[in-house]
Design goal:
Layout (H helix, E strand, L loop, with lengths): L7 H5 L2 H10 L4 H12 L5 H13 L2 H15 L3 H17 L1 H6 L1 H9 L7 H10 L4 H24 L1 H8 L1
């Protein structure tokens, strides 16, 4: 088993901050925060973990929607980061047929599907690519995050596994 030692200031943070912080990170988002909150931190109140994960996941959304193009244009000039952003934008564009076809509801579903490279961060990229207005994009991403949180919470709490075993 690999042991990871975290800086003492991270270990000292309250669990609530840890959950919201993980949920705010790209890639992990609430798909990582909910299992971490329940399984690693041992918080038994799934509702509390769900709520904190949604809050944390939504923290970067509005700034990203408002400033992503600005940040992208400045970051694309940095070798590694620029290549990553170009790759990410191309990948989102290829994977976002759902958004192209269904618009607002496509963005909701795109964010709601709890798979890698879907979620709030990628949803903001897609919203920028398809020039969805900020208010509509934020609402779609909010709905998608709420749905994804329900799905991940059900999986983590074992309800989905329990239901399938009884069928």
């Amino acid at each position: 088993m690999i042991e990871i030692s975290l800086p003492s200031w991270i270990v000292a943070l309250p669990d609530e901050i840890k959950i919201a912080g993980v949920a705010a990170l790209p890639i992990f988002e609430l798909r990582g925060a909910i299992p971490i909150g329940c399984n690693i931190l041992g918080i038994s109140a799934i509702g509390k973990v769900y709520f904190l994960s949604i809050l944390g996941n939504l923290v970067p959304v509005l700034p990203l929607l408002l400033f992503f193009k600005y940040f992208f244009h400045h970051l694309e000039n940095i070798k590694f980061i620029g290549k990553f952003f170009k790759w990410w934008f191309c990948r989102v564009e290829k994977k976002s047929k759902l958004i192209e076809r269904w618009g607002f509801w496509g963005l909701v579903l795109f964010v709601a599907i709890p798979l890698p490279v879907t979620g709030a961060w990628t949803g903001t990229v897609a919203a920028n690519l398809f020039e969805i207005k900020v208010k509509r994009a934020f609402l779609a991403i909010l709905l998608g995050v709420v749905i994804a949180g329900v799905i991940v919470s059900l999986i983590v709490s074992g309800i989905v596994q329990l239901w399938f075993s009884s069928v």
